[in-house]
Every structure is written in structure tokens, then in C-alpha cells.
Amino acid sequence: MSQNDDERLDQWLRDAHAMEQQAVKMLDSMAGRIENYPELKARIARHAEETRLQAASLEDCLKRRGSDVSTLKDMAGKFMGIGQGLSGLVAGDEIVKGSMAGYTFEHMEIAAYRVLIATAERAGDTETRDACQAILREEEEMADWLADHLGPTTLRYLEREASGQTAKH
């Protein structure tokens, strides 16, 4: 382990914390607009709560390591999340595009946690590794859920649209 490994781990933990702050904003925004897809709304709301706990876990890791979150990165992540959340307001097929974006974002998070796990392992920080492994499992579960529901959500959207019902969200 080198000092650089520890510095890199702290940097990537801060990045992950900002990523989770962004995710909370996106999830809350989308869940708040969903009206006609109750199962998706409930799963997104549940994952938003998981995401809040994930951010807290990352903050605990940083504090235990003698570091702290990056206020600037967190603010940037939140603003990006707000922007992404608002972008759905103009999309007529928001529910489909939002599901696709969520699936993509989950895979970015999965990659980030795999990087963090490897780095924590190299740095000899088993507590951070274990925390990141727990978060990784939740991200994989959400990605799997979204994958299983992309087809049915799309078909429900198309059926609602064809019948003249509100299909957007």
C-alpha cells in the first residue's frame, strides 16, 4: 500500500458520495412524477432510501479514514441530478427514457463500487471494502430489477399511449 493508494481511495470515495447525492435527486424527482406505474414508483422510492443510506455509509468511511466529503463535488452532483430530473419534464416518453437512464446509471455505480472494492482491498481497508460490497449488492439488485422491468414498463407505456391515456409518467 502506498500513500497514493490511500489518497486515490479517498478521492474515489468522495466521487462515489457525490454520485449518490446525484442519484438521490434523480430518483426523488422521477418518483415524484410517476403516477401510472405504481410498481416502478415504489421500487424507485425504495432505492432512493437505499441511496441515502449508501451516501451516509460512504461519509462514514471517509470520516473513519480521516477524510471528508467534497462539498463542491456534492453540490455539482446534486445540480446534475436536478437537471437530469427536470429534463424528464419535456420528454413525452419520460417513463421509458427514465427507466433506460436509471439502468445505465446503475451500471456506472456498479463499476464505481467494483473499483472502490479493489482499491480498498489494496489499501488494506477491509471496513471500506465491506461497506462498498454491501452497496454494490444493492446497486446490482436495482439494475437487475430495472432490466427485468424494462420490457413490461415499455409495453405498459405503449398500451396507455395507444388507448389515449396519459402514458408519460
Descriptive notes:
By secondary structure, this protein is mostly helical. Residues 81-90 have low confidence and may be disordered. It has a single domain (3-162), classed as Up-down Bundle (Ferritin). The protein is built from 5 helices and no strands. The chain has helices at residues 3-33, 38-64, 71-87, 94-123, 126-162.
Question: What features would you highlight for this structure?
Answer:
Ferritin; 169 residues; Ferritin-like; mainly alpha
Short description:
It contains five helices and no strands.
Give the H and E element order.
Answer: HHHHH
Termini separation: 49 Å
**What is the CATH class name?**
Mainly Alpha
Number of domains: 1
The total count of strands amounts to 0
Uncertain runs with pLDDT below 50, 5 residues or more?
A: 81-90
Number of helical segments? 5
Quaternary structure state of the chains depicted: single chain
Mean pLDDT: 88
Main sheet attributes: strand count, strand direction, barrel closure: none
Beta-strand content estimate: under 5%
Q: CATH architecture, please? A: Up-down Bundle
Q: Which structural category do the helix and sheet elements fall into?
A: mainly alpha
Q: Tell me roughly what share of residues is in helical segments.
A: over 70%
CATH homologous superfamily heading: Ferritin, core subunit, four-helix bundle
**Rg calc:** 17 Å
CATH fold node name? Ferritin
Shape: elongated
Detail the topology: elements first, then pairings.
Blueprint: H1 3-33, H2 38-64, H3 71-87, H4 94-123, H5 126-162
Helix pairs in contact: 1-2, 1-3, 1-4, 2-5, 4-5
